[in-house]
Design goal:
Blueprint: E1 3-5, E2 12-14, H1 48-56, H2 58-71, H3 86-100, H4 103-113, H5 123-141, H6 148-156, H7 161-187, E3 211-215, H8 227-237, H9 246-249, H10 253-265, H11 267-270, H12 273-286, H13 289-292, H14 301-306, H15 308-314, H16 317-331, H17 342-346, H18 351-374, E4 375-379
Antiparallel strand pairs: 1-2, 3-4
């Protein structure tokens, strides 16, 4: 967060929250105009083998760029059911970027947010923005603390079901973006954090043995769905990661379509044992029981269910390297570095599979946040993975 002192006031303001009676230039104004709004100029720094890796990952990167365009378009018209303004979206994205500590993201979203007018200064608008900020920060840093009461507060503040779904997708997507950007920084052996980041959050408490997920919001009913939503609902039934929550995510059909494309593009990566283990580590740290039991994790499942450190004690050398990479990227992407990748390189992992592992770990974190925020779990003995 860049502190700036505004004329005539004795308080510190973030540049995007200050009064509009004067103009304050963002810290890096050029960050708003990057051509690639997902990798934010990193692709141009990749050469040789890493450049080839990004070309091979073209489908997943294209899906991510399309998600950027859907969530943060150049212009946005609100409606009765979709009330989030571009200011609302970008301010939430900036909060998530600040939580992750990825300066490149902070610069971009602050620069895009800076010229926009904020909401009116009424008590209702202030409360709405405050609750959105709180929700964004909590879901980005400690997703397991979000519960039905948080959704209820957002609804009372005037957010519709579609708004809550979109806001949650923004938080999940920027969390995903931050970790992919951090991963490329590590592959380039570049530092991610230029300024001190947020304190390291604690892992979620011990998971339940088995849990069934139930949505906390009303899903889109087929009788009320438009043709595009009906098509997406049919696709979600064939997609393992979206089968349970596709109905509620369909409230924002364009973003759901991009997420489905991204999941499909990373499907081959999901089949690897390394990805299954990384996904389980990510879900364990974030506290998503519904996601944790979807990944095998093999003989490490019981130990990992207790905590990540216990799993490290019984894991083989290669498994330890995967756990360490996934844990660091999930807990604190701003501290992720080449040192967390090197052990897997020494085990013979190539750059293509390493980048795929980074992407899949980041995607798992996005999906964890959707499952934790938009639904709840209940213990059941009859649940099958």
């Amino acid at each position: 967060m860049e502190p700036r002192r505004s004329p005539g006031h004795s308080h510190w303001y973030h540049e995007t929250l200050a009064t509009r009676d004067f103009h304050t230039a963002p810290l890096c104004p050029e960050a708003a105009d990057v051509e690639d709004r997902f990798l934010l100029g990193l692709a141009a720094q990749c050469t040789g083998e890493l450049q080839s890796v990004l070309r091979q990952a073209g489908a997943s990167l294209l899906a991510a760029r399309r998600t950027c365009d859907r969530l943060f378009p150049a212009g946005l018209a609100t409606s009765r059911t979709h009330t989030l303004t571009l200011y609302d979206r970008l301010s939430s994205a900036l909060i998530v970027a600040q939580v992750t500590g990825i300066q490149r993201l902070c610069n971009h979203y602050a620069a895009r947010l800076n010229p926009l007018s904020g909401p009116d200064p009424s008590r209702e608008s202030n409360r709405r923005l405050t609750l959105m900020t709180e929700y964004s920060r909590q879901l980005a840093s400690q997703p397991a603390v979000i519960d039905g009461a948080a959704l209820h507060r957002l609804n009372e503040a005037g957010l519709t079901t579609a708004d809550i779904v979109t806001l949650t997708q923004i938080i999940g997507f920027v969390s995903y973006q931050a970790r992919v950007v951090a991963g490329i920084h590590a592959l380039l052996a570049l530092p991610v954090r230029w300024i001190p980041g947020m304190p390291l959050p604690q892992d979620a408490e011990t998971l339940r043995q088995k849990a069934r997920w139930q949505t906390s919001l009303r899903p889109v009913e087929k009788r009320d769905a438009c043709p595009h939503q009906l098509e997406l609902l049919a696709r979600c039934q064939r997609q393992r990661l979206l089968k349970e929550n596709g109905g509620v995510l369909a409230h924002d059909a364009p973003v759901l379509e991009c997420l489905n494309l991204l999941i499909c593009s990373l499907e081959p990566q999901r089949q690897s044992p390394e990805s299954a283990l990384a996904g389980a580590v990510c879900a364990r740290i974030n506290g998503s029981s519904a996601c944790f039991y979807r990944y095998g994790a093999g003989k490490l499942r019981d130990a990992l269910q207790q905590n990540v450190e216990q799993a490290m004690l019984v894991a083989a050398v290669r498994e330890q390297a995967v756990i360490n990479l996934a844990a660091q990227l999930t807990r604190s992407p701003d501290r992720f570095s080449a040192a967390h990748i090197q052990p897997l390189k020494e085990e013979g992992q190539d750059l293509h599979s390493l980048f795929g592992l980074i992407q899949f770990t980041a995607l798992t974190g996005w999906h964890n946040r959707l499952m934790l925020a938009l639904g709840s779990t209940e213990t059941t003995d009859a649940h099958s993975d």
